[in-house]
Amino acid sequence: MKKLSIVGIIPARGGSKGIPKKNIKEVGGFPMIAYSVVAGQLVENIERCIVSTDSQEIADIAKSYGADVPFLRPSEFATDSSTDIEFIKHAIDWFDKNEGYIPEYWVLLRPTTPLREPDVIKNAIEKIIEHPEATSLISIHEFAETPGKMFGIQDGFLHGLCPMDPRPEYFALPRQEFAPSYFGNGYVDIIKSSTVINNNSCFGSRMLGFEAPDTGEIDIPEDFKRVEFYLSNSSNSIYQHLVNNK
Question: Strand pairing partners for 33?
């Protein structure tokens, strides 16, 4: 049996409360999860891509687009409070027991970020392979604001969010006086099995940043309208693949 080293994983639990059945709600005429399934198929350096779900309905829809669903995730790893490490650990254990090997890299393709391009994901994989000292990779984009100018509220009064900054009233300084800030955008994250096994952590202490387009995540109903608008006015290779193979 070929020992695969790079496996895509699409986490898609069935119990979304904010938007019921969010992962299979249609966007651009296709279930949202279909975009991540096709992404996993089109990225040439992903050797296998699986869907991790607790829902038979999601599994069946994903399979109809060619997804590999080798197991159903146990319900205890698919609650509102479940964390990434739970479904990753489950996948590691399943591969070890049922396939006889553990993939080195897990390319995390969350369904809630459908507007990807395969070449960008390919470049992210190449970047982490070029940096073996990294414990993980997280896609990011530069944030317009800096935490140095943000406030929290305690006992009814504002307080700066960076109390270790030694500069007096640092929060009133010009934005240019602060280092750039970055936001994880969900485009692609890459987890190493060694980090999970050795450190009980998905991302570890040496997270490699990978700048990727801010295509937005789908969290609220209005986000579907934004994606629909984008698809009607721009080109996306995954959407075109879905249309051409309908």
Answer: none
pTM to 2 decimal places: 0.91
Rounded distance between C-alpha atoms, residue 73 and residue 189, angstroms? 20
Give the phi and the psi of residue 222 in degrees, each rounded to 5. Answer: -65, -25
Host H or E run for residue 157? strand 157-160
1 confidence band (pLDDT: 50, 70, 90): very low
Could you say which DSSP state residue 163 is in? T
Provide the token pair at 26.
Answer: 């249609």
Name which residue leads in pLDDT, 75 or 130: 130
Alpha helices (runs of H) in the chain, residue ranges in sequence order: 32-42, 56-64, 84-98, 118-130, 193-199, 221-233, 237-244
Q: Which residues contact 105 (CB under 8 A, 6 or more apart)?
A: 5, 6, 7, 125, 128, 129, 190, 191, 192, 193
DSSP helix, strand, coil percent of the chain (3-state; round to 5):
35, 20, 40
Residue 71 is encoded by which pair of tokens? 């197991």
| DSSP structure class, residue 218 | -
Residue 91: burial class (beta carbons within 10 Å; 0-12, 13-18, 19+): buried
Per-residue pLDDT tens over the stretch 111-160: 999 999 999 999 999 999 999 999 999 999 998 889 999 999 999 999 99
Q: Do residues 9 and 49 touch, judged by C-beta distance below 8 A?
A: yes
End-to-end CA distance of the chain: 33
Length of the chain counted residue by residue: 246
Q: What are the phi and psi torsion angles at 17 (to 5°)? A: -95, -35
- Round to whole Å and give the CA distance between 54 and 68: 14
How far apart are the C-alpha atoms of 141 and 181, rounded to whole Å?
9
CA-CA-CA-CA torsion sign (2, 3, 8, 10): positive
